[in-house]
Amino acid sequence: MATGEEPESSATTEQRLIGGRYRLTERLGAGGMGTVWAGWDTLVDREVAVKQALTASAGPLAARILREARVAARVEHPAVVTVHDVVVEDGYPWIVMERVHGESLADRLDHNGALPEREAARIGMAVTEALAAAHARGVLHRDVKPGNVLLGSGGRVVLTDFGIAYIVGEESLTQAGEFVGSLAYTAPERMGGQRPGPASDMWSLGVLLYEMVEATSPFRRASMEATVGAVLAGKTPPLHRAVALAPLIKALLVTDPAARPAAQAVIEALRATAGSAEPVRKPAVTRSQQRMRWAAALLSTAAVAVLTLPLLDRFDDSPSSPLASAPPTPTNSRSSSQTGAKGYEHVSQPGFELEVSAGWRHHDKNASAQYRYTRGEYELIVVPGRDAVANYAKDLMIYQRDYEPELQPYRDSTWATSSGLTTIKVSGYRGVRGQFTWEAEGKERFVLNRALNIDGRIHLLVATGPEAARDTVSRFYDHAAKTYKPAK
């Protein structure tokens, strides 16, 4: 541990009562991030697993681990281990989870060697669905590996340790003793110090699939330095046993995060290999055209037809919704009319036009060149061409990640998550899109953010609202994005 502190021994910790209700019964295992105990919830009489996170006692990192664990507890999916509680005992974070009986995927591979492709695809599909559910809640795993995949009874597959790896993984690789994770499963962009996103978890998934079918790790070497070098080199070793899964594994292990397939495309490909009769489901999010092309090459014609269906707009016209119509608030700053879609009004300003929800308050252009539209806790921000792309190495990814003022609260927040930045193309304009959650004035804010390169200037569209109202924020953001046009 970086702090020099050591966890208590088994002799002193076994039978200990944590949080006044969780009795530790036996030590199940330990790793770089903590010790896991079998336990018993004395309040409701059930088995639990209790993990002691190894971090500085009562320090800010401990508080952040607890906060991230609480976020992870919101992820509900059969393939995600259920987090029951998080407590602090003697300054240490303890995460109380469901007890899953079975063996880890690491044990299965150690005992049986390579898995048949259909079985590897079945396990991989469950892991990917778990990741997709977590990403939708703004949670990144950052430690996808065989040791964190449990194979329970009845064929159940469970991915464990959600949320914990995200916080600890914030530390730089160059700070000795502070990087916690598994180097052989760590995406190259994370090693390079870039802020990771869902694509980083997809890279780790590719390593996991490779190891399942080939019975060896593609990048693990005899030393830490050699392992890091193998990952950064970006050369995937040949696949000898994989046939059906080979194209998918190669696509997941490309060094460019933007070129990797998204979770839904991976799920469909794995389902095809696993031979499941489950009907193909429409994806929950829109992917970039590059990922669409990859999916089209890999999937059947029927699957592609489903994957490329556009999302349908869903409007909430209930009186309590911020999207519901209300008497408009007049200001001197707008030029608008009721020519928009039902419940929306068309707005035209110097540099852009779009549709915003009817009844929202329109604010004058401020000193930051922002046009703001608000109602209650919800806000839509438009910045048409304030900044030049050339001033940021002509790279919108760098601009959004490091410089965009609208995202500064994310960089300053003591607690924040990101589902990553994705390259997009809208009406012929290239751009970058991301989603974030951060804490502001004690409240968690969900943010959707887009930057487009339009004639060398950066056009921004930002939607914010309560973290618990993600669907509502997504609806008014999607409509604004769909109707946004730069001024002619």
UniProtKB/TrEMBL annotation:
Annotated Pfam families: Pkinase
UniProt xrefs under InterPro entries: Kinase-like_dom_sf, Prot_kinase_dom, Protein_kinase_ATP_BS, Ser/Thr_kinase_AS
Group of enzyme by EC: transferase
PROSITE patterns hit by this protein: PROTEIN_KINASE_ATP (PS00107), PROTEIN_KINASE_DOM (PS50011), PROTEIN_KINASE_ST (PS00108)
The name this protein goes by in its record: non-specific serine/threonine protein kinase
Classification lineage: Bacteria, Bacillati, Actinomycetota, Actinomycetes, Kitasatosporales
Residues the record lists as binding ATP: 51
Keywords, comma-separated and alphabetical: ATP-binding, Kinase, Nucleotide-binding, Serine/threonine-protein kinase, Transferase
Residue ranges annotated for the Protein kinase domain, each copy included: 22-274
Chain residue ranges for the region called Disordered: 319-345
Alphabetical list of SMART domains matching this protein: S_TKc
EC nos: 2.7.11.1
Transmembrane segments: none
Keyword Repeat: no
One of the record's GO molecular function terms: protein serine/threonine kinase activity
Signal peptide (from-to): none
